């Protein structure tokens, strides 16, 4: 398929028409469609997995990293999880139609602010086929249509997933154009999508820094940015060191290829000498390479037989590793930890491990990341873990939506004025 054969304007027009139908659906109708999509996904699982296997094989031949291959890979268990996640959205409260506030003015006018769908979403993402289901289900629950543009490395998988979604929509009596995908990897189509402001109301990029920069610089559509995490944990002098090891292991190892995985560990100098050997043993057993600097490197080097110890380069503390690599630095105390995080964090997920409540409070008040964690893994910054269901993205910006973008983040509002032949004096 050539990019010339992709009619983005036509897709935009169809999405706008579909969004108007979705906006007036009842919650029961939307939930029935979600169940139909989950059933269609289960029925088509073999086809989806077959197409995904082709994508994975092509990605491996192209030299994709293990982290990207992990993001790309679907399994029977992951398909089942996607169907379960789709059904979990059914149980979530429908925010559309909620009255955010309502009051009667001194003039007798009754004023209400009510949640409504945004309209049409454009989402650009890379090697994450699960995002296709996450976006489609949340968009449908909130009455939004969506145009998807996945990465070329996931094209077969995404086409198969969207075919299942559209089969579910059709079974529920809804327009298939409520969820559309640009089925051509030509990058020129991304530039066209960024300027489709006549039909697309909000753009969400999910990918690397280059994609986010491209969207911010070239889009004529409002852009929600996020999903790039250089995430930190600070081991305070008062921390429960045994518990800290468990949290660090989870944050780094549980799924290293995602945006809320731990990238940098800061350790208070008062506990570094006793703690870093324990860290080397734990991380070495899990295959984690430690990139250390200064005092941390000095303290870790004697334990090079237990773990891979590498001297950190000048840019290593600005890296989102997406792999089994962890930056390690010893800091003099809270002030240096905060200074380091403020200099290197992408304001995604940053936390402190401490038993000192004033220190925890100071950290929470000083670090302004989308999620600030106390004695908890950075992996908890997730829509499902927060009880929001699937998420479209984790926003690190400060306007409209921040953190896991669940249902409410995909709505806006309108003012409704009830009068009795009122006029302005």
Helix and strand content put the structural class at alpha/beta
Shape: globular
| Low-confidence sequence ranges | none
- What's the main sheet like? 7 strands, parallel
Radius of gyration: 24 Å
- Extended strand count: 16
| Number of helical elements | 14
Strand order of the largest sheet: 10-9-11-8-7-12-13
- Whole-number mean pLDDT: 94
Order of helices and strands: HHHHHEEEHEHEHEHEHEHEHEEHEHEEEE
- Share of β-strand residues: 15-25%
N-to-C span: 61 Å
Helix content: 40-55%
What's the SSE blueprint?
Elements (H helix, E strand, L loop, with lengths): L7 H15 L4 H17 L1 H17 L4 H7 L3 H15 L8 E6 L5 E8 L2 E6 L4 H12 L3 E5 L5 H17 L7 E3 L6 H6 L8 E5 L2 H10 L12 E5 L5 H13 L8 E7 H17 L3 E4 L1 H7 L8 E3 L13 E7 L2 H11 L4 E5 L3 H10 L4 E4 L19 E2 L7 E2 L6 E8 L7
Parallel strand pairs: 3-4, 3-6, 4-5, 7-8, 7-12, 8-11, 9-10, 9-11, 12-13
Antiparallel strand pairs: 1-2, 2-16, 14-15
Helix pairs in contact: 2-5, 2-7, 3-7, 5-6
């Amino acid at each position: 398929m050539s990019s010339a054969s992709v009619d983005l304007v036509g897709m935009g027009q169809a999405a706008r028409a579909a969004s108007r139908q979705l906006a007036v659906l009842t919650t029961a109708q939307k939930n029935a469609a979600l169940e139909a999509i989950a059933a269609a996904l289960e029925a088509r699982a073999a086809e989806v997995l077959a197409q995904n296997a082709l994508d994975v094989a092509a990605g491996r031949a192209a030299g994709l990293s293990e982290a990207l291959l992990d993001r790309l890979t679907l399994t029977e268990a992951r398909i089942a999880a996607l169907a379960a996640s789709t059904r979990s959205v059914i149980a979530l409260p429908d925010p559309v139609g909620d009255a955010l506030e309502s009051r009667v003015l001194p003039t007798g006018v009754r004023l209400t602010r009510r949640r409504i769908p945004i309209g049409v979403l454009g989402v650009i993402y890379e090697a994450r086929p699960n995002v296709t289901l996450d976006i489609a289900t949340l968009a449908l629950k909130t009455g939004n249509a969506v145009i998807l543009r996945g990465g070329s490395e996931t094209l077969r998988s995404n086409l198969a997933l969207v075919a299942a979604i559209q089969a579910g929509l059709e079974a529920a009596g809804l327009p298939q154009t409520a969820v559309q995908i640009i089925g051509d990897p030509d990058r020129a189509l991304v530039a066209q999508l960024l300027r489709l402001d006549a039909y697309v109301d909000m753009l969400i990029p999910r990918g690397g820094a280059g994609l986010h920069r491209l969207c911010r610089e070239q889009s004529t559509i409002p852009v929600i940015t996020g999903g790039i995490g250089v995430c930190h944990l600070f081991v305070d002098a008062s921390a429960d060191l045994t518990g800290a090891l468990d949290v660090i292991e989870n944050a780094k190892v549980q799924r290293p290829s995602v945006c809320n995985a731990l990238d940098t560990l800061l350790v208070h100098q008062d506990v570094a000498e006793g703690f870093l050997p324990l860290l080397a043993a734990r991380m070495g057993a899990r295959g984690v390479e430690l990139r250390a600097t200064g005092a941390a490197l000095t303290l870790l080097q004697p334990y090079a037989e237990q773990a891979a110890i590498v001297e950190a380069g000048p840019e290593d503390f600005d890296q989102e590793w997406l792999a089994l690599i962890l930056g390690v630095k010893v800091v003099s105390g809270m002030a240096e930890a905060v200074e380091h995080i403020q200099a290197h964090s992408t304001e995604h997920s940053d936390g402190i491990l401490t038993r000192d409540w004033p220190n925890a409070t100071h950290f929470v008040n000083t670090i302004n990341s989308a999620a600030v964690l106390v004695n908890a893994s950075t992996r908890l910054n997730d829509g499902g873990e927060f009880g929001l269901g699937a998420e479209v993205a984790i926003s690190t910006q400060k306007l409209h939506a921040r953190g896991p973008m669940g249902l409410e983040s995909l709505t806006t509002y309108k003012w409704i004025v009830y009068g009795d032949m009122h006029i302005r004096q």
